[in-house]
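Researcher: Watch the backbone:
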Amino acid sequence: MNGMFKNITILSLISTLQCSSQDDYCDSIQVITNFCIKRHVQTITAATCWPSEVSVQLLKKLSAIDKSLSFCLQFKPQTHVTWYRHGLMESRDPIIRKLYETKITPYYESDLFTDAAKGTERICTEFHGFMVEKTSAYRVVNKKWQEDEKCGLYEIQLFKLPHYFPGTRYDVPISIVVILGMAAVTVIPAADADSFKYDGILRVLTNVFLRRHVQTVTAHTCWPCDIEMKLLENLSANDISVSFGSSHSAVVRRTQATWYRHAYLIDLSCERSTNVFQRISNFRVVFNAQNDWILLDGQPVVANETNMTAASLATEIFQTYLGEAYVLPDSGVFLFQMTGQKDFWHIWNGFRASKSDTMRVYKIGTASPESLEIDDLREERRDFRGITLKVNTVIVEKELFSGFKKKISSELDIFSHIHYEMIETLSQQLNFRISLGINDEYGWSYGNGTFGGLMGVLQKDEIDLSGAGVLIRADRLAVVDYTIGTMSFRNIALFRQPSLSSVYNILLLPFTFELWLTAWLVVFVFVLVLVILTRTIDRIKKDVKNSMSTLEIFTLVHGAVCQQGYSVSRNCESIRVVVFVLFSTSLFVYISYSASISALIQSNSNSISSVRDIVDSSMTFSAQISPYGKYYFEETDNHLIKTLYKRKMLINGNKAFTSASEGMRKIRTEFHGFMTEVISAYKIIANEWREEEKCGLTEIQIFDLPPLSIPLVKNSGHRDLFKQKLIHQMEVGIIKRVINQWIAPKPSCQSLHRYNKHIRVSIKEIHLTIEVFGFGVCISLGIFAIEIVYHYWAVHKNKK
């Protein structure tokens, strides 16, 4: 209420000046500015009927010191065109035109216009100006803002719009709301002012922010306004954005809304600093590698005090303000402690290795306006001093589990063994112990934001990290943080390709269509030549008795092609030459055909190469029992995979998902497809299958699964450190060695060994030949029947 009365008084003061002359306005603006600074005013609400140029001059006077003010406009269909065009683009006011050219034209219209909720949210978290209807702004502020956030707003009317409808004036339709960042000023006694040199600390802070590559700063100080504005000028000159806040909620919102490096400047001499730390101590998101915290202790350490005293004081400060905070090794909290020497500061860094660990405080450097020395404490942060971290892993088949020290386990739990060895190596790298727990499932979403299994334990913050690798899924990103992709996860459909003879007519495959056409053309040419020679010789010698009919000549050529002789011999050299060439040609063709078809009989086809081919084939299909298989079949949006699941698997009922050994047995004995993990399949093939059985296997990737990763609790303060050490394990080959110890390599087909072994030909390979034989017998019997009928018909006709 005190703030409101002060605000009302200011409104009354401003309102009494509305009838002053143009010259009086300048003096009034200066008087108001000095008065507000003198009285430490945080909120100014200008409800006047001054000319627009005077209102703009007041805004310019109060905010011209900051050049980093961002700006946007409210989007409202009936008014935003009028605001944008008539109010800004066509304005003749030079200051409004400058506002338009510097704050609006450099940006796209999509970035410029926003709704009232987003615009006021930016006011709360940034140094931002927002042109908005006053009623819209008030509605959002009263509904969403906390009481302490409502202070520090400034309103000004740039220009007036015409009446909204006849007889009613649109009540102050346009207002610009700007956070000026003016905190209340606490008067520092003269003795403290002598020891606390603002110029020196401002230069130190600028150097620190540049060294730490900070892009934005939120300052919680109780310095005089002119000092805060000087800090703003110094940092803005180095492209560092600054805002001045006073509430813990603004801190949290600011951190969640940004992805760049941010710093918080906290003056511990302010009364509200303790309250800020108490309220945000449980927020993990503010203590991470993305944010730096700069704590300023303005009480100097006198020259005759020992280092132990300075260290004790620094430790006491960390315990007082951050005793319950989530300050883990990834965080960056720095205490700047003034010394007896002029403008010389000791820099202390504090963190704890885990939630249960005590605060560790180290002196990491010194700072002065001329120099800055900071040690990053890499070795100290990597030494957890033997603390115990809670780790849970997943064992699906507990009855087969005999401990992590043995290399024999269920195929479904191999990934847990692999990642447990990574965690053991990680514990040696960082010097911590493991308190191990076991879950029976990885955990899936219940649909209400909660998870079961291992994910649920991490979500409830009951452990520090997982000892098992899990699939990186979008629904889990909301409750856990991932380290790095430790290994790829391959799930394949494994099957034997059908034999070539079962898919194609292998009797025709040895030759191409052009070669078959050429062969038939050669047969026709030989028949034609023999017919011409035979008829010519018969006319010359008039030897009808030894003559051959056209059908007999065709039979002769056919016999030559089939490597069969013929009993008829003509005493004609030309015919003998033709027959010799015929048999020689057919011999070479027959050799090529026989060699090709021998290889084709032993070959497998490549007729199945996609999920669609599996669906359209006569192959049966099943999948390995796994923690994720059924979920991915039910969640997939792929039409072909859904069809495969419904048509090939659901009809089998409980047999749709089976063990790896049973599925691999069906591949050996049936035309069967089996979706399995490569680890299980390769292990069974290597241990149980013969060498010749390894040939002809085909793999198809059914699901494109994400990689496995070790998850941590959300916003963990160990994430970056764990990631660095896991990357180091990967770079030096530790992870690869562990994987190779557990996962068998892909089995190779020893083709030379295969072809040295006798391959038996079954009926499947020659069934087309048997079909040709059957058709030939049937045709011959039919012709034989016709001949008998014809014979009796001819005899009966002769008798007549």
About this structure: The domain at 605-718+739-756 is CATH 3.40.190.10 (D-Maltodextrin-Binding Protein; domain 2). The chain is about 45% helix and 15% strand.
